[in-house]
Amino acid sequence: MSETDPAASPEGPEWPVVEDAGDLVGVPDDTERLWTPHRMAYIGGENKPVDPHDGEQCPFCAAPRRNDEDGLIVHRGEVSYVVLNLYPYNSGHLLVCPYRHVADYTELDDDEVLEVAELTRTAMRVIREVSGPAGFNLGMNQGPVAGAGIAAHLHQHVVPRWMGDANFLPVVGRTKAIPVLLADTRRLYADAWP
To answer: Which residues have a catalytic role annotated?
Structure first.
């Protein structure tokens, strides 16, 4: 919009010209774009440790050192804890993390395996009670090639799913609407935790 309308009167105001999509890179079409610049923080690696093996830089090691509200922690167990995902796939997306900085599921000791499993089950119950999803995706991405954003600290995803949550917005618009603030979700889930 840096150009002005050449048809504008010299005496009158100059009106901005809206750029034609045909002048832009790519194939022009009639699709409206929904821009999600906040996702660039995740894509660009914001909050990712420079050295993924350094527990001091790891966000999953740092979260328990904060208070629950600042760390988005829903529940603290003996050897693991439950935290909201800062970059959720869906509203209410929780992560179950061991306190210990380990990368691989086979590195968990017996107490950690049991508590991660039990906290995952409880997380599902709490999400059902508070948010009423139709189903869940559960999973651990082991290693960067498997999609782990922070591969050095194991975390179990608990993602609530609703009918139609993969509608045109994320599929066509490549954007995700998260209708509830993380702080509000954390409070609701923490209050409902048994």
So the answer is: 155
* Sequence ranges of the domains in the chain: 37-192
The CATH superfamily label for domain 37-192 reads HIT-like (3.30.428.10)
This prediction has a pTM of: 0.71
Residue with tokens 């994320």: 170
Distance CA 178, CA 89 (A): 9
The model's pLDDT over 21-74, given as tens digits with 9 standing for 90+, comes to 555 555 555 555 444 555 555 556 666 777 767 777 899 999 999 999 999 999
Q: For the chain, give the longest Cα–Cα distance.
A: 81
For residue 138, the model assigns a pLDDT of: 95
Distances (CA, A) of 138 to 67, 116, 131, 161, 180: 26, 12, 16, 10, 21
